[in-house]
């Protein structure tokens, strides 16, 4: 079964480059920009044009940019990537030596953002791109991560993981999504327990998810408030596919979303209501694994509405949902 999530509609994300870095980032732990050599040449040419005689180049580069003279020229010639902090410091020099104002500085910084650059770390790990638009594909992935993702960092190690029982869902939906959105290859691992997992160790992607779109498992990120109707639908579909299930039995047909956080489910119910889909709950549950909550849809008209509005992009759940909808419509037509 081929499952495709569209690219439209797209909502631009404002220039977030500086928000990818922390004050504690040093040379060895910075995020680096690849593919901006031409821009650096242009800026440096403007700085040097009318100031060459008074510029003490080596000292200026060392003290103000925090980079060696040879290393800077390698960045300028496109042989090396440049850290986000150093690139911004270069623009601060440009503002000072070329008598520019803050508005012109911001305009130049946005010019950097518009370049088709890639990002990496000092260790020259796999280069990645980061999205500059909020799209249905990204919204779906954010919904999945909020529902059942795993994000962890420590000692300059970064972990992005999605666990899933269905290897087909990882192979044919989630792995291609990571590749299309971030231009990375995400390997699939067999877990020690049940199921499989996609696992990445990319610092740029981790920082994007946690510091730009602010993903937290079991919480609704503030960016959801900026979503239009289309992106909100795909976000909710991602939540359902990660934490929901379809019961298509004759006597107890229903759609259910489970979570340990009651507050999370209450917020999800509100978001579904905004797209005119009504869940009931949350309901309290206790079992061997502890306490959890559920919200659900039992009403047949609401199940059909859910299928047409949000639906599922999960290889197994989509088949069960279609089977349930077909059964409901068949009974109505008798």
Please describe what this structure looks like.
It is built from twelve helices and 13 strands. With 334 residues, it is of the alpha+beta class. It has three domains: 80 residues, Orthogonal Bundle (434 Repressor (Amino-terminal Domain)); 85 residues, Endonuclease I-creI; 104 residues, Endonuclease I-creI, CATH 3.10.28. The strands form four sheets. The protein has a four-stranded antiparallel β-sheet. A four-stranded antiparallel β-sheet has the order 10-11-13-12. A three-stranded antiparallel β-sheet has the order 3-2-4. Helix 1 packs parallel to helix 4, helix 6 runs parallel beside helix 9 and helix 9 packs antiparallel against helix 10.
Quick gist of this model?
By secondary structure, the protein is an alpha+beta fold. The protein is built from twelve helices and 13 strands.
Could you outline the blueprint of secondary structure elements for this entry?
Blueprint: E1 11-12, E2 31-34, H1 37-49, H2 57-65, H3 69-76, E3 82-83, H4 84-97, H5 102-113, E4 118-121, E5 133-134, H6 136-148, E6 149-154, E7 157-164, H7 167-182, E8 188-190, E9 196-200, H8 203-212, H9 229-243, E10 244-247, E11 254-259, H10 262-274, E12 280-287, E13 290-297, H11 300-309, H12 315-332
Antiparallel strand pairs: 1-5, 2-3, 2-4, 6-7, 7-9, 8-9, 10-11, 11-13, 12-13
Helix pairs in contact: 1-4, 4-5, 6-9, 9-10, 11-12
Which tags fit this structure?
334 residues, Endonuclease I-creI, single chain, 434 Repressor (Amino-terminal Domain), alpha+beta, 3 domains, four-stranded antiparallel beta sheet
